[in-house]
Design a protein that fits this description.
By secondary structure, the chain is an alpha/beta fold. The protein has nine helices and four strands, in the order αααααβααβαβαβ. A four-stranded parallel sheet has the order 1-2-3-4. β3, α9 and β4 form a beta-alpha-beta unit.
Length: 226
């Protein structure tokens, strides 16, 4: 077990841990324009980028770290990274597929900086970073063509690759745990296939990335079971 898993399990046996709140609404309150989302690095990028919240991990990392800090100061024990949509599948809408791994690394680092800053003030209370893994904007559990029940918007293999890349970035960025968040199909139905695929991909990434004998806890959101 990693030190993070040992500490998490010990604390969970003693009390309820507090998760942070929504990231999206906090970003909306900043009223960032297109230029702010792009930053200097993506000033010449083709598609519009305003509203691509995950990109802010690269273009406005200190703003994201500050949001994490606010939640931690309000009492959160665990903060989720700003990486809900940071997969090649979701980022294809913005033409940002090549930056997905880096996006996840930066997202984890921003949250980690905030957690370490708060823990420096109160070392007796551990704080944790949960690497947020979202549902993507496609599903492999429902047909995308009324004339073909076998039609899918994405394949199993594509989802595994996308989640594996995301998990690797979150691990390399320093996430303490994985958080598979709201993996749902259309109409609000829970997509158990997506959840299972995300767990499989996370396991592959953990096995190939971490030292022998180490484990990183992974939670499925809304169940909160490590």
């Amino acid at each position: 077990m990693t030190d993070a898993e040992n500490t998490l399990r010990r604390l969970l046996s003693q009390r309820i841990l507090v998760l942070d709140g929504a990231m999206g609404t906090m970003i909306q309150m900043l009223r960032l324009d297109e230029k702010a989302f792009r930053g200097e690095r993506f000033a010449g990028h083709g598609p519009d980028l305003q509203g691509c919240n995950d990109l802010l991990c690269l273009t406005q990392p200190e703003l994201i770290a500050d949001i994490h800090r606010q939640y931690l100061e309000a009492g959160a024990d665990v903060v989720e990274t700003n990486t809900f949509n940071s997969t090649k599948i979701s980022m294809a809408d913005y033409g940002l597929e090549p930056y997905v791994y880096e996006m996840n690394v930066a997202g984890a680092k921003a949250a980690k900086r905030a957690a370490e800053m708060i823990m420096a003030k109160n070392p007796a209370r551990p704080r944790f970073v949960a690497g947020a893994i979202g549902p993507t904007n496609r599903t492999c559990s429902i047909s995308t063509d009324v004339h073909s029940a076998a039609s899918r918007g994405v394949t199993y293999e594509e989802l595994v690759q996308a989640y594996d890349e995301q998990a690797r970035g979150l691990i390399d960025g320093g996430a303490d745990t994985g958080w598979i968040d709201r993996v749902r199909a259309r109409g609000g139905l829970v997509s158990h296939q997506h959840s299972a695929i995300a767990l499989i991909a996370a396991a592959i990434a953990f096995i190939q990335t971490m030292a022998p004998g180490c484990r990183l806890p992974v939670s499925k959101a809304r169940a909160a079971i490590l």
